[in-house]
Automatic annotation (TrEMBL):
Gene3D superfamilies: DsrEFH-like. Residues 1-23 form the signal peptide. Keywords: Signal. It comes from Maribacter ulvicola. This is DsrE/DsrF-like family protein.
Length: 140
């Protein structure tokens, strides 16, 4: 048990340091967004929202990240279901992220996750870190 707690703390510290470095590189004069979702089908309206914001904001549009978590996270391994979402996300510069805690809790094989989806070990922590950097956030 002590090993598990120590390992978890170590992973969170490493994640925190990595996220801070990346977030500090972002232009604070841009509008940045993060969405936490529990359902893969919600990716379609989320990506359409990113597209509309990009068209509306032009050069003010910054980073747009979507964190997928929860009991249905295993759906991200379905290449048929995810293919179109991944293609649209890349087209509109939307980053798709998977919550590592959810992957572990619901026993999702990480090797089956498409390479275009980045894993963050703690999706909720990542969301809060981005909010601390000025990201606008919504959870669905």
């Amino acid at each position: 048990m002590k090993t598990y707690i120590f390992s978890s703390l170590l992973v969170m510290i490493m994640l925190f340091n990595t996220t801070n470095t990346k977030a500090q590189d972002l232009d604070r004069n841009k509008n940045n967004y993060v969405v936490l979702t529990k359902k893969v089908p919600q990716l379609q309206p989320i990506i359409l929202t990113a597209q509309a914001l990009k068209a509306e904001e032009g050069d003010k549009f910054g980073d747009f990240q979507v964190i997928i978590c929860g009991p249905l996270i295993g759906e991200i391994t379905d290449t048929e279901k995810m293919g179109n979402f991944i293609e649209q996300a890349q087209k509109f510069k939307v980053q798709l992220l998977a919550c590592g805690f959810s992957l572990d809790k619901f026993k999702v094989d990480r090797t089956k996750i498409p390479r275009e989806i980045r894993i963050v070990e703690n999706g909720i922590l990542h969301n809060f870190q981005l909010q601390n950097k000025g990201y606008k956030s919504v959870s669905l």
